[in-house]
Amino acid sequence: MSNMLNEINELPERFLDVKADQLLELLGKPTLIHLQGEKSEPLFVCTLLHGNETTGFYAVQKLLKKYQQQTLPRSLSIFIGNVEAAAVNMRRLDRQADFNRIWPGTEDDYLAEAHMMSQVVDIMSQKKVFASVDIHNNTGLNPHYGCINVLNKKYLSLAGLFSNTVVYFTNPKGVQSAAFAPVCPAVTLECGQSGQMDGVSHATGFLDVILNLDQFSAEVHEHINLYHTVARVFVPEKYSFGFSDDATINFYPDIEMFNFVDLTAGRSFAAIEPESHAFLQVMNEKDQDVSGEYFTTIDNQIVLKKSVMPSMLTVNTTAIRQDCLCYLMEKIQIPD
Questions:
Q1: Are residues 117 and 246 in the same domain?
Q2: Is 122 a residue whose pLDDT tops 90?
Q3: What is the gyration radius of the CA atoms in the chain, in angstroms?
């Protein structure tokens, strides 16, 4: 067992009452909690991989309070991730790796944190995990949606129980849901912005449904809108950026309104300083630079060259530097 990880078989005292920023004091480090239920194959719930995305933790608290006086319908294993970052309400600390980029499949498998995540997958595999749910928040304005890494009807069915909007992606590497995808149906829930109670309620209701489920349907809800993430957009490190008129690249202050909206070719994304030759970098699923396929510069404006649908656009500059500006998606058909 990694000395980075706690593994325990009961809820710590005060667990149901603490705030996310108190978990470092309560737990000390990332913690895997196993609780027995009537069905032995556990539901695995992953929370706080990003310390400022608290919806998953509060959903787990709310779920467990419901079952305080009764046996869980299914065993439940809970992974509480980056408690250090949660203590200061940050995605991650500067000295840390991103906890949702270091699961098996990561290019950073030499890291001690990656070894810990690999152990978590091994532990849950041995327990014959029923399903894996990783709960996140968006930094920008987005609908609630589910993400999968395998185009399989059970996985689509799982995601469809959360939202009619489902996103399929294969990059970035090292994410939790992709690591569990070979083991069991796995989904990432995107529950809107942190601190919103509707996200907590939505995630809690979903977890309750899965706890009481005997098996996943092979049928996929016909109302699901399925999107494929084809690229990620980055602001090159050498350029300053902002949302007014004082940087090399200036995005529009209402850019978050573009999330999950079909944008047509010719739409301006940002204004740039004259003579700067500034650009946005676009990397496809194979980590190939395809910037020229998606953007061009016209009259000191960065303009779309093709129709796309963005997700996860945000005005949070720290999140943009630590992760990316946004993802670009295309709508696809549900597989037969």
A1: no
A2: yes
A3: 20
